[in-house]
Every structure is written in C-alpha cells, then in structure tokens.
Task: structure prediction
Amino acid sequence: MVTINDCTELPGPIHSNGLWNTIQAGAMPYALPLLELQMVFIFAIVQAAHHLLKRFGIPRFTTQLLVGLVLGPSLLGRFGIFKNVLFSIKSQETLGLLSVWSYILFMFLSGVKMDLGMINRTGRKALYTGVACILLPLVVGLSTQLRLSRYYKLDEDEATILPYVTAIHCLTPFPVLVWLLEDLQILNSELGRLSLSTALVSDTLSVFLLLVSGLTGIERKKGRVVAAIDSVSIIIHVIVIVFAIRPTMFWVIRQTPEGRPIKDTYIHAIILVVLGSAYLSHLYGQTLVVGPFFLGLAIPDGPPLGSAIVNKFNSFVRDVFLPILVTTCGMRIDLSLIKFDYSYTRVNGILIVLTFVVKIVASLVPPLLSKMPFNDALTLALLLSCKGVVQIFFYAFLKDNETMANQTYALACVSVLLTAIFVPLLVKYLYHPSRKYAGYQKRDIMHCKRNAELRILACIHRQDEIIAITKLLEVSCPSSERPLAIYVLHLIELIGRASPIFISHQMQKKTMSNSSSYSENIILALNQFKQGNDKGVVSVNVFTAISPPKFMHEDICILGLDKLTSLIILPFHRKWSIGGSIESEDNTIRTLNCSVLELAPCSVGILIDRGHLGRSIVSSESSYSIAMIFLGGNDDREALTFAKRMANDSNITLTVVQFVAVDGDVDSRWDKLLDNEILKDVKLNNVGDEYVIFLEEMVKDGPQTALIVRSMVDEYDLIIVGRRHNLESSQTSGLAEWSEFSELGIIGDLLASSDLDSRTSVLVVQQQQNDGQVGN
Result:
C-alpha cells in the first residue's frame, strides 16, 4: 500500500510489446499487464482457498488475509518468481494505489449502509455496551501503555506512536461487524441488530476520537495554526454534507418515480463527489477515507438511492477490490520479524491481549445486567471484539508513514488474523442460526403499556384482503389515548426478475404514468381508514416486498424487528366465497404462515375471513359482536388482551367465554394465577367504557367443548382464540387427532373447518415465543 505522496511518477512502461518480447526480457516490466496478472492471480487463489475453507466456517476476510500471508515473505514470497517477478517492489506502488482506492469505495459504501437513525432507536443496552466497549479498553490500554513505556524505557518515537496503535486495538468498526454478520448469515437477527446498534454507538465515538488524535498529531508536527485550520476545514466539510449534500440526496429520491431505478446521471455525479471529498480529506490532514465515509452517511440508506448505489458497486468492491487490499496487506507480514525479546514488540503484545480481554469484559457486563442469556451476551461480546479490514488498513497506513515498525505491523496483523479465525467459529458454536429472530425484549400486546402506541404489521397477498385487515384494525378501537401504528406489507411473488425488491411507499415520488403502482389500491384504502380517525390516532406506512415465497418470512420478520411491532397479522391460506364455500386454497401461503409462527420476533395472529369483517363497523345503526374463547395459557392471555382493546366502542359487544374443566385443569398453579389475574377485570365488568359479557362453561372433555363452540359461532361476527400449540388440557382432549391445520391450534382449526357452515371470521393469536418455548 502507498500513500498519495508516493505516486509522483509512473512505475515504468504501461503497455506490453507482446508476449514474445516479454518472455525474451525474462521479466514483466510493463505496469498494466503485470497489474492484470496480479489481480487474476490474487482473485483465483482467494476464490479457490475460500471454496475449501468456508466449509470449516472460515469467513472471506480471513481467507484473504491467509492467502496474503502465504504469498508474503513468510512463505512463498521468499522465492524469486514471487519476490522479483510477480510481486516485485516496483509493482507494489500500482497495486497499493488500487488497494487505497478500493478502501475508499468500501468505506463510502459502509457509510451508505449505515442508518444513523438507529442511534435514536438504540436502547439502553446497546448504548451502554457501545460506550463501554470503546472507552473502557481505551482507558485501561492507555494507562497500561504509560506504565509499560516507563518500565521498558521505550524511546521517544516508540512512546509517541504507541497511543495511536493502542487506540486502533480498541476500535469496534461498524463495517467490520457488518461484513462478519453477513458471512455468519445473522445480519438481520435480533442479536445482529443489537450488535450493529452497539457498534454504531461505539464507531461514532471512535471516529470522534480518531479525528481528535489526528489533529493532535498535526499540532505536534506542524503547529497550532495548521491544526486550527484543519479543524475548521473538517467542520465546514461536515456542515456542507449535512445542510447541502443530504437535502440534495432527498431531492434525487423525490425526482425518481416510485418503482423506477435511479438515473445513472445521479450515480455518476455522486461518485465524482466521492473523489472530491477524498482529496479534501487529504488536504486537511486526515486519511483519504474520512470524506467519502461522511458522504456515505449523508445518503439515505435503503431503497431507492442507497440500495441503487450498493447494488451497483458492492459486488465489485467486495469480491474484486477488497481481496486485493486485504491480500496485499497480508503479503507484507513477515512472521520472522516477531521476536518478543525486543521490548517494543513485547509491550505491543501485552497491549493487544489486554485490550482484547478488557473489551470482552466491557461488552459482556451491560447485557448480563440487562438479563440477557449468558451465551448470547458472550456472543455479542465476541462480535464486538473481532477485528477486520479497518484495523488492517490503519496498521498499513501507519507502516506506510514509517510510524510503525515492520515487526509491530506483523504482530498487529497476526492478532487480527487470530480473532478473524476464532471469533466466527465461537459465534457459530454459541449462537444457532435458527434463533436469528429471537428477541431479548417482550414485544407482545400484554407487555405494551395500556395507553401506549400499539404497533401492528399486517401482511397482504391479494388486494381484496385489505378490507378484512382494515375492519380488524377498526374494531381494535384506536384513540388518542391508545393510538395505532400500522405497517402494511404487500407480499408479491418474484416472477420475471433476477433480484427481490423492497419498496417503501413513503419515500418515493408517485409516478404520473398510466400504470398504477404495485400497492396503489392498498395505499388508498389505508389512507381512507387513516382519515376516518382523528389526527394523530393512526399512522400508516405501506411497503411492498417482491421476493421468492420461500424467503417471504424473512421480509416479514425483518420488518417486524425493524419497526418493533407487537403483533403480526397474517391472512389464512383459504379464501371463502360470498356464498360460504371454499373459493381457493394456497399451500404456499400456509407454509409461509408456519415459518412466521416459528421465527417471528413478536406475537402473531392468523386472520380467517369468512365475510363478516367486510361489514361496516363504525355506524350508529349496526352493532358488531366479538367473542373471545378462553381456556388458559400464554396465547389465550395475549388474545384476551387484544380483545379488551375492542371494548371501547358503543357499537361493539365483547363476550368472553371461559371453558373450565369439570374434573379440574392440569395447568400449573402459576398459570392459573396469571389466568385469574387477567380475567379479574372481565369478571368485574371493568374493561374499557362499554359493557362486557363474561360466561363460564363447564366441560368434561374436548367433544363437549366442540359442541358448545359450534353452537355459538353464528352469534358473533368475530371470534378471537389463542393458538395453544402443543398444550394439553381436559377441555380439548380427544380433538387433537382431528385437527387439520396445526398453525391454528385445536379451537382455531375447529372454527376454520370446511364442514362448519358459518360466516364468522376468526383471529388465532400466538404470543411472542421465548427461547425454548414450544408454544402454549
């Protein structure tokens, strides 16, 4: 790698005179053919090595660094063909310049992918962990470094650079974590999002500290005047980005019709600005990546602009450019130089181990105090302590500036390699991918404060399903005391496209063409529902996901995680006609529903619409009857909590029917206590502002329960039940073997039976699943 000051002249002739003349010369003196050969060689070796090592859980970054180590002076670099021909010292300038350019693009794309809004949504756990994992190892490392410098009597140059090296050891770079989580395939998991929020907090502090340390170094070398000028330049640069460039990016989004790609002219202009910001960063004494990184932060992440830039450049940067950067950094590692009899190397070794251990402890304590499971807390600590391409670049940058010795560089890179090998292996051992959407917070209706906003994610496959969804939301009685935040996801099967699409209909400008957007009718229906309520009572956000059916559950769970929803509503896979017969049945939707029930980060409801939900509700001339069938357990308590929200409208009548076993139930004493507690206000008729009917039915077995349920269906427009999956009780004994749809539970399956002549709609509720909870 080289700095911009090193490239003062071209490294010899550029074009070759032909293969024969090159062979006769006995070397490769031509810059362009040699660069192409180096790129092909690095790319081929890295891909082959990754193909072998990925089955052992070794990430791509680790493979690239290992390949560089093998090609370096420690192994193959000792041979003449590598040292003098393929990777000669003269060719290092061109290859190094390409590496710097690749890192500039990488940091720009990392900034584009960052969502600074996550800082506002960051909980205390992520905030405290992010602050602790950067400040605690930094304070301990710097204080230890001062003592070691005096003890080992380091010279002035070594003592001066040591604080910068120690600070790099303590970093928790957001881009490194994103790359690692992508390789581990847990980027969209709850743990992945928590670690990203933590890393964003830590990285924000890190950038500030690095800027301050850089300006301190400038003051020491060039004086206070130059440092003050550079400080003002940085501030002006940031102000221009925030108040000029970022509004321009939103203007670009507004100029792009919904569902249309961003114009190439805008993309080209952005890349030119990236190059200019890199040059400006160099002018005011910072690394070339500071300006592009800040510029990336100014671009709104996600569709349409952020995703367009990432889609255009990410693959080439990640798969072609970055392997060159990491491999060339690895080629400069000489293991023979690592000798711990040298005091400075010994001090660095102590600081590397100490900062890593302190970082693990600092990242472990806050999650444990928040009652996070130990394995998950340890996994989070390991993720935050892993090192990667950012540290490698900084080490190489210090080495290029001749402020880091070769042996120190080798030791620091080896520490990066060791963490990059063992951390992913330990994470895979501690954290199973099947738990990628497991939550650490209660995200259900029961734990939503009584007067707090209830967030609901409603999923729709066909546009005619929006009627039932809006009516269900309407009977939930939103008010200024209990507002609703509704997120509607229109799911469309991916056909005739190469890649999935995710559209946020709040960001882009509506197209004026004759062709309607994917979800136009859905948006119109929801806007009418929103306008039918008082201002501030209902907020509506519509999204469209076009993806293969086997991945749709990921779109649902990811959006539920991102919006912190308490309930996901899914349509049943059967559709009934106006006459009451089954019109269609889609087993793909059923498979999707089962996947969401298994992985959802919050509570889930399956809506079975048989026609009554299409009736008008908010009308002084008609009433709406709702029944809640209560047998006991988590799911029933969650369903009852949702039903209680509906008892706040004079046109809605809520009836709670509790089925009690004649011979005593088998529920635990704790479950019975919780059931009685949630039924207390129902029995006392102290729910909402309206009258609530409570009925108690004594039954001896499942068949008697089925008879009573069948007799009551025609009396109500909507029946709400809990799923109670795999929960045995006397009230349902003998019914399980007759169930057709396990995703509905026994009572839900009974109400959705094809031989039941009824138009009563049903909502089956499953409470958020805890770790190890099968269902109840």
